[in-house]
Structures are given as structure tokens and as C-alpha cells.
Design goal:
The protein has 77 residues and is of the alpha+beta class. The chain contains 2 helices and 6 strands; from the N terminus they run ββαβββαβ. The protein is globular and about 30 Å long.
Length: 77
């Protein structure tokens, strides 16, 4: 099932299928290691829902919800 990263629940793991968006935002996500076929784990969500903290490539990364909406993730089976 495909979901936006911004729609995952804490504790869910998924495989990044695509990074949407254009220009600077897409380049910024790629520069941070958010690339297709990479496993991502949603660690935390801030009390107001923004930002979210993920584990990717062995490190923790915080993303704003508006950035996380560009990342399509395949969750479970």
C-alpha cells in the first residue's frame, strides 16, 4: 500500500518508492539521503504534528510535514 510519508503512524516502516516535487525541494530531499528504494522508519511526531522524525540510512532526520508529503512510501504487505 502506498502512502505519503506524512501519513505514516509512529513506529511504521516503509520503502521509499518515489520522491515527488520539483526543483529545490526535490534536490534538498535527495541531498539528505531521501532516495527511492531506501527504508525509512517514522520515529516521532511533534505534539502539534510538525515536524516528523525519521530514521533513514542509520541516522535521524527531522522533516516538516510539507516536505514529507512529497515522499511516497510502500508500507507493509
Amino acid at each position: 500500500m502506498l502512502k505519503k510519508l506524512s501519513e505514516l503512524h509512529v513506529g511504521e516502516t516503509g520503502l521509499i518508492k518515489s520522491v515527488q516535487g520539483e526543483g529545490r525541494i526535490r534536490r534538498r530531499l535527495f541531498d539528505m539521503g531521501v532516495t527511492p528504494n531506501t527504508t525509512v522508519y517514522l520515529r516521532k511526531v511533534a505534539p502539534m504534528g510538525d515536524p516528523v522524525e525519521i530514521t533513514i540510512r542509520g541516522y535521524e532526520l527531522s522533516l516538516r510535514k510539507d516536505e514529507a508529503q512529497y515522499i511516497l512510501v510502500e508500507v507493509g504487505g
